[in-house]
Batch of 2 targets.
Target 1
Amino acid sequence: MKRILIAVSVEAEREAVLRGAGRDPRFDVRITGAGSALAAARTAQLLAGGGYGLAVSAGIAGGFPGKAAIGSVVVADAIVAADFGAETADGGFLPVDELGFGSARIGADRQVAERIAAAIASAGIAAAVGTVLTVATATGTAETAAKLAARYPEAAAEGMEGFGVATAAAAFGVPALELRAVSNAVGPRDRSAWRIGEALAALEKASAILPEVLT
Ligand SMILES: O=C(O)c1cccc(C(=O)CC[C@H]2O[C@@H](n3cnc4c(=O)[nH]cnc43)[C@H](O)[C@@H]2O)c1
């Protein structure tokens, strides 16, 4: 039996995933920390132990307005390191793919992502398939939100760990997914508007459908 690693950044996310999917012995829900570097290092440590068939970056996230509302869930069809590249002299941005020394995009299995999103939606939680951005700095202004939306029109959400988990998974030949429940809008920072409880409840419900969908 291959195990499924669910990598989350904090204890509250781990508890939500365990409430949803904890009854399935295949699921190994681990706190791999906040940020892409820590998530990559800890995911790699875990995968090095062997026996995993899938790695999932899961947690709460910012949702792009009009793409993913608070309380909804986004399942990634691509995981993109949004700020991995070079700034140009005129303030533009060149993704690392155009610089010729790497890629900022890791694809996920779109059919699996669609199956998961459909199952979540049929459990009564709004769910969408889209690109999930990984950022080192959570977006805090309308200007940055607009830049990201223009640069990545397929982006539905942003988190801070997905690209790290997916990079580690790729190094071990393990497929990766990302599942994010939206706690706040990507835009001007207003911590008082974050709906963490709502997002964790959505994460729990989304996790509850994983055992039947990830067979
Ligand atoms: O304070 C709490 O109770 C609490 C419970 C669960 C999670 C948290 C976090 O702060 C998790 C941080 C984690 O969330 C992701 N995140 C959420 N919103 C955004 C965003 O707008 N932009 C980028 N990342 C976001 C991210 O993956 C963080 O690591 C607190």
Target 2
Amino acid sequence: MRIGMLTSGGDAPGLNAVIRGAVLTGETVHGHEFLGFKDGWRGLVENDTMPLGRHEVKGVSKQGGTILGTSRTNPFEGRGGVDRINEVMTENGLDAIIAIGGEGTLAAAKRLTDEGVRIVGVPKTVDNDLDATDYTFGFDTAVGIATEAMDRLRTTGDAHNRCMVAEVMGRHVGWIALHSGMAAGAHAILIPEQRTSLDQLVEWVTSAYDRGRAPLVVVAEGFTLDSMDDPHSERGLDAFGRPRLGGIGEQIAPLIEHRTGIETRATTLGHIQRGGTPSAFDRVLATRLGMAAVRSVNDGHWGQMVALKGTEIVHVPFENALGKLKTVPQDRYDEAALLFG
Ligand SMILES: Nc1ncnc2c1ncn2[C@@H]1O[C@H](COP(=O)(O)OP(=O)(O)O)[C@@H](O)[C@H]1O
Ligand SMILES: O=P(O)(O)OC[C@H]1O[C@](O)(COP(=O)(O)O)[C@@H](O)[C@@H]1O
Ligand SMILES: [Mg+2]
């Protein structure tokens, strides 16, 4: 078979390991050929391709980013649509597409499979917010980077007796904040799922400070104080029309300082969390998902994505993964909150 492959949406460490896992299994075990589409759906709509074989995937699983490039192009906009995509697939002699992306990418893939295009999906999100899979690759790397950054913030915070605020990614969910905050021993973790009050935050910060600690506050970019209507956004919209988040740490730091009198500094980790070398866990998960995507193609599991359930890789219809975010459950937050302050 000839299989096209694309990566779409924000990048996540491990994308290249998925690509390598699929290409190596597909070529050596099953005799398939692969073709890369550049920059997500844009490459498929515009027929912008690149060779994708053993040579191209040599040594890439330790590289961040994606050798195929990515974008947030909607395949139904502009000159896109199902007829155009079928035309490009026929022109390239393709039997199937492996689409690696987040909820939006899978929503697009579902629409296309409903119209007869043969697509299998591989879930991608550093936020870990996709339902129907236990973990997504990229999340473990992001948590590791954030934890290391917080360990560093704590030593400088301790030296000056300051309160340190660390802002991490997490548009709708607080998984990165919860895990990195727990790992770093944060005195408060603020996540989109929990609309915390400034009074509560001040209580946690003061209690830690009064015990002689330099308070560490971890905040997810999508967090809103109970006095705010929407998550903080000051940088316009992204290519898909969503507000670009970021900056809530800088907003709450002066509020903490004003209310407590404790000198407070904020650091936004931003895209550092998504860049660079994937962790070993993410490389293994991504490689297994790439290999499983090829098995899905062999078995004709169109309209399904591969997913992690416990330690097993399973197949899940796109619709089961869409429409519902995997948020931080109340009991996981309550458990972490026992150690706040
Ligand atoms: N309902 C939809 N139909 C078609 N395309 C969509 C839909 N929702 C999102 N997209 C497309 O999904 C892609 C990005 O979304 P996603 O895969 O969730 O990544 P990210 O969360 O990193 O932005 C873009 O190509 C966007 O245009
Ligand atoms: O700067 P960009 O590429 O628009 O992405 C920012 C957004 O992407 C994210 O990293 C989400 O990425 P995922 O789709 O991989 O979960 C959010 O945390 C953040 O709001
Ligand atoms: Mg996403």
